[in-house]
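User: Please write out a complete single-protein record containing the residue sequence and its fold in token form, without commentary.

AI:
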Amino acid sequence: MGQGRSQLKNFLYFLNSIGAKRPIKFSYVEAQVVGGRCPRGAREILMECVDNVPWEDKELALKRILEGHSNPAVHRLLERTNEWALAQGPLNASQLKLLGLLKGLLRPADYLFLERPEQDLEVADLELFSSALEGHIRSTSQVVFISGQEDGPWASLFSKRVERGPTMEFKLCPASSEVGHLRFQLPPGAPVKKIA
């Protein structure tokens, strides 16, 4: 849990250092699934991505958000979550993680920060989410940040890498991709220092 908080702090410090417009509208999906199993249904969890709407109107608002998505992989992810809802059993760690990642893609925000999105995902879910993320990056103006392994499954999707130097300044480095979004990458064990 502490590692995730450091990653989130560094993400916010970086946005502050580049003068991101306030208020900062971002969606964050942490690396670890808390609790491992959840008795709530997949649909109820997805409805959490609809902000500022009374609970009784969330189903309709979620339907409108989903209708606005032209990314076929997002719709395949949704079909997968509907299968879980029909099974009516508790959700495992991979299902919970995939729901969290889907909520991240659906929630309206200027920035999306995914902390080690591959963690806890089964192979089939990882492939499905990879496809959805690639389509999301290509079809939206949202800036996507990912912390994780340098050679992780997301490396080909990003054109820049953000590193934190020994004096704690942020530095943009090239990455091997044509897609115009950032990858958020920090050296292991880098201490957190507030950027003025």
Summary: Strands lie at 26-29, 111-115, 143-147, 160-164, 170-174, 182-184. The first strand starts at residue 26 and ends at 29. The CA atoms of residues 41 and 88 lie 7 Å apart. Helices lie at 2-17, 42-46, 58-67, 72-87, 93-106, 123-139.
